[in-house]
# Entry
Amino acid sequence: MATVEFHPQSVAAPAAHAARFFSEGDSHAVLLLHGLSSSPLELRYLARYLQSEGFTVCAPVIEGYSAGTRDLPMERWLEGAVREFDALASRYERVSICGLSIGGALALRLVRARPSAQSLVLLSLTLTYDGWAIPWYRFALDWAYYTPLRSRYRYREAEPFGLRNEALRAKIARAMQRNAFSEVGPSTIALPALHQALRMARAARREVAAIQNDTLVIHAIDDETSSPRNPRYVIDHIGSSFLRTVWLDDSYHMITSDNEREIVARETALFLRESELAHGAGDAGGQPVVSKALARRLRQLAAVGRERA
Amino acid sequence: MPGTAFGVAAALVEYFLGLGPAMMVMALGLGIADYLFVPPYADFTVFDYHDVFLLVSFPLVSLIVITLIERLRREQFRAQLITSVAQSRYEMLLRHDNERALARRAVDETHRLLRHLAQHHQGFILIKALERDAAARASVGQSTSYALPHAGDVAPGPLFDAVHPEDVHRITHGLWAGSHRVRLRRAQHGGEFRLTNCRCERFTTHAGDFLVLRTEQ
# Structure
């Protein structure tokens, strides 16, 4: 349970593993959105943990957005995500949205389309590709979209594949060579998909201020794909009253598979339960604060909040 | 030295706006300084040792200053990020501390319940589980010698059968921590019911909350 094993059969048949993940749990459903041109595989550890904590977990494959599907404009991605959300919302009392990387931008747009969502979890949110491993001439890719290169060139994922854990990185590198796919995402991304993703991120950026759902932001400070400026923008502009930020320093971009995946999974589950309780859903009135240190800290935070108000 | 003011300007811009604007200011400053402050003034066409002096000294000094400030700014940014990591770790630690404190309290309560059960086992009337899934949670890793009550259910104690039927109904439905008066049939008094003072105590254990009703002895 504590490790993400790389199964040999997933190398042999990546298409089988790109299938949607669904597991029935209690009345709180979590919609997990993976990264661009990737698959629910990269959220496997988080999905299993949430499942073991009793949540209903759904990690869908979205037409046009997930790997191995045809090109579609980003409005269609959003429609696909909204459909998945509505399917969950009709069956479960509460639905939370959790997005990894560009999936975070999709989650931001989805929560704008469906403000009834319980809470929003943004893991390694990517609004622009500006991490330290992104070459300075990356903007040329945005222009290449308007040239005949559009259908020929594919952006190739390189070391460190978003992983700080070197053993895992070596495994992924081998898998990427043998295969077009791995558990931390695709080895290449097509230019049209990249173009649509950036359009979506720009749209998401404009709408951040109107979001009022409970929000958890988890980001690694050494993220090689999206710098801490991305979540910082959301933290500064979002309208939610219950906002929690967790900064990690022993991971890169793929925080759901890297060294701190346990922390990510635990904090996500904890936050979702607390958000439930904050909205009066709990019968026992929530977990009481017994720790004196925590009580002191909460009083401090409350005092800071009053000063700002 | 003609470029001093522009060097200072570049350093200030670097501190407040960053590397790109500072480089721009330096390049512009070099041109303006050469045009306006190097004799012959307002003329680019003459190139002598004054121009060479400016062309070497101004970029050299400005670049050194800008690079140093940029490096310090980067370290500062890095330090702020590490501070935020430390802060979120501290908050995680506090949340864990709360969980640990709760767990310890539950363990203490469980021990108190066990002592209570051992001490007053003769005087029990009933045990009631408050939490819905208490029984399910309690059944994990427990020897099942003692039947734990089910969802909102009661487990009868040794004196349960001696309670007056009306009181049975009352105490199984509305029970709270504190003292109660219950009619009990006493064997030594020929089977008649007598009012008896009882105590009800609440235990918040790891397996959920329990109310234990016993006679006062």
